[in-house]
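Lab manual, section 2.4: Encoding a predicted structure.

Procedure: take the sequence of the chain (107 residues), apply the prediction step described in section 2.3, and record the output as C-alpha cells. A sample record is shown.
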Amino acid sequence: MQKVKSAGIPRAVVKGTSSNTAQSLSDLGATVEVSQAGSITAQSEFATVSVETNAVRVSLGTPTAAVGHLLQPGDSVDLQGNEEVLTAKFISAVAGAHGALQITTEF
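Recorded output:
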C-alpha cells in the first residue's frame, strides 16, 4: 500500500487526459490558483499526479514524446512549491495513446 502524505488543504481529485500537446495542470482541469474579485488569493503549493493508463512524460518546461521524465501506469509524481505546480507540463509518451491522470492540488 502506498502512503500518501498531505501537504496542505486538498482540492477535489480531478481526472485529466494527456494529449499529443504538452498541457499544464490547469489545462488538465486542476485548480492551481484561487481568485476572488479578479485577484489571486491562493496558489497551490503541492500537487500529486498519478498515471492510470498509457505512459506520459512530465517536465518543468515543455516535454515532448521523447523528452521529459517517463511515467508509466501506476507511477505518480509529487510537485512541491508553486513554481513546480505552475510550470509542470504533461504529454502522451506515444502519439495517440493518451494517459488517464488523477490530479490533486493542495493549498
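Check your result against the sample. The first strand starts at residue 14 and ends at 17.
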